[in-house]
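re: that complex we talked abt at group meeting.

here r the seqs, copy pasted straight from the sheet so there may be weird spacing, ignore it
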Amino acid sequence: MDLIARLRAGLPGEAILTDPDVTGSYANDMASFCEAGTPAVVVLPRTVEQVQHIMRTATELRVPVVPQGARTGLSGAANASDGCIVLSLVKMDRIIEINPVDRIAVVEPGVINAVLSRAVNAHGLYYPPDPSSWEQCSIGGNIGTASGGLCCVKYGVTAEYVLGLDIVLADGRLLTTGRRTAKGVAGYDLTRLFVGSEGSLGIVVRAVLALKPEPPEQLALAAEFPSTAAACEAVCEIMARGHAPSLLELMDRTSVRAVNDMAQMGLPDTTEALLLAAFDTPEPAADLAAVGELCTAAGATQVVPAETAAESDLLLQARRLTLTALERVKSATMIDDVCVPRSRLAEMLDGTAAIAEKYGLTIGVCAHAGDGNTHPTVCFDAADPDESRRARESFDDIMALGLHLGGTITGEHGVGVLKKEWLARELGPVGLELQRGIKQVFDPLGILNPGKLF
Amino acid sequence: MDLIARLRAGLPGEAILTDPDVTGSYANDMASFCEAGTPAVVVLPRTVEQVQHIMRTATELRVPVVPQGARTGLSGAANASDGCIVLSLVKMDRIIEINPVDRIAVVEPGVINAVLSRAVNAHGLYYPPDPSSWEQCSIGGNIGTASGGLCCVKYGVTAEYVLGLDIVLADGRLLTTGRRTAKGVAGYDLTRLFVGSEGSLGIVVRAVLALKPEPPEQLALAAEFPSTAAACEAVCEIMARGHAPSLLELMDRTSVRAVNDMAQMGLPDTTEALLLAAFDTPEPAADLAAVGELCTAAGATQVVPAETAAESDLLLQARRLTLTALERVKSATMIDDVCVPRSRLAEMLDGTAAIAEKYGLTIGVCAHAGDGNTHPTVCFDAADPDESRRARESFDDIMALGLHLGGTITGEHGVGVLKKEWLARELGPVGLELQRGIKQVFDPLGILNPGKLF
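got the structure back, here u go
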């Protein structure tokens, strides 16, 4: 086959996978309800030059290229198209530099988030972005999907930590964007354009990342509320009073019960909403006390501050297990990612409960409450066509509600295949036209991750 | 004249200025060595619809449009072209909303930075970006030039506070980008593309800005050093040890003397470098003590911590007066804005001193040292052609040195007319081609601020 022969001219044999049983396992990320095609070949380059060779070949032969990290994404952005080259960056996994004076790390895209986090910790530094999949997901994937996590309420999202990029363009040319410096405003911000572009503009082969000093270990509290509205009232008060929690998470009754059923953690099974707050400040106990009072004032029936890091970890583990626990409720789940202004969070949660009732579905909600970022998770039986249909429809209702409340269809999971039609609705025709214009500038042949985003 | 008549069809009479004596005063921002043309007309719209009318007219008649804020910029980005419409946004100066729960402000572009800062302070909130011109400059100008300031070492630049924009495009259509939410990854980040685009992609008519809780009042110290290298060593140690100063500024001997000459502030006239550090933490005195020790270890001959906010203000006033003081040294100044990795700051300062010596010039340097962002300010006699030529050449040497040290030609002042050739050098041909492609998407007729950036 001409494609494979051409690829072989610039890649070692072990970097090219063609056995359909093997390549088939690269067809999907972790999203539900997203179609995936059959790749022609999977390539695993180890150098920038090899990536350039792959892209030159793809351009010459007009073959679509689907870039992949660890395939932990939740929107189908890494799903294969029929006949495509799957370009997996997992073998480019070197940490090239960690510089405590400049507070930067220089990495290849395949580095696992947790590996980088631990490596910079050893230098007294901190790489904040912490998606739930941080032990599996790669920095390149984090950049492609603009990942968030639990830390965002204090530390922001991946985008805020990407200073500069090396990118192999669709035609194989190398582009360097951004900088190693703390500041810089030379020309349009192409770096930021690539963050969240889901591999549709070029292949990230190296990144300069900003680091923070490692904060003190965080201390958490849990507060039980008799309604999600009361918990959201507490969230608004905490933020309006100027607190800077390192984490502010909400679990609804369905989520709490699912975690209890799975892990017997002894969470308060009768509660309607559990709020978790943490501080990594010099005096976290004082901050927790102040936040505990606000929770009580908002109607919390019980407030339990952790006194040790170990107790905190236990509380937070409940939150980290939520999605896994919800996956056990029925045979399938569909996780949403609507972000609303935090002042509208209560309406979002009440509205989601109403949608669950309307469709007769179980929808568990956990939320990065401090950011207004909710993850309604529809639990359904995939073997039941009617329930599957209702699940899909409820998902659309949830996105419509998010937009109605002044929010966005995706806080941190991205668009991929899953939310293409909704992206068009959120952007409107003018925005969509300009986004397509930008895509055309970088990828005039349309070979980079076609069918994603729009 | 057809242009004026067309403009009158959608603008009140007082919004159109045509008297050449008046319009001539809108020809320039505050940059040196930048040519400016003669505008055909100055328009001062008060509504989005008026801006749309102006842009539709400009598109129909193919007339260039130069957007302007308060014209405090330092790169000529707001300079008029011959026959252009100067579109001044200063009359669109409403603060539309301040929301403490969502921690956002919604503003029109003409709002003065200091006016917004004070307005949000009244709600216990903080809008960090604080360019030296903050009492005069407008938020729209800050967005257009991606302004920085003294706060950046802890709080980052303007770009990090712009969540969403309303933009009137070249053809008069309205584009809404971004969001009101804390997070959001729906499509390419067009918001960020506009920040620092110097009016070359569209007209910002409304902005959603992120706010922070108001921090405690900062407390500062001053440390005298026997060399800039020793002061830079202290800067590196402070940052490597994980400190988070709210300000970390350096003044070289020339700057210190200029301030003393102007304001008789009693600064140590014999010092080679003065370092100013401040903390807005809960216990600033403890942080200052730790930083003071690092300064002493790096060779500081004297360390003076302020004990009150009033003492801090006095120390910081010296820094705020530096540019004004340097402007009194000779008849003209030319201020540069090179940013290097902070680990290279000492080399940047030593190299700048060598350049001053080579050209026989007085170059005072103040620096946002914590960011590696230096402002070498060439003081020269504009009436002396040879000295003017040497000033211009030294300026080029300084930018070349910045790039050589892994830095950028502009940390926060932008490109405008002043650094066009240098932008091309920093970006390289591939980057430049893509930037031009983006410009073409938004402004196919090339009527928006032509001749700026590239």
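couple things i noticed - Residues 128 and 356 of chain B are 34 Å apart (CA to CA). The first strand of chain B starts at residue 16 and ends at 17.
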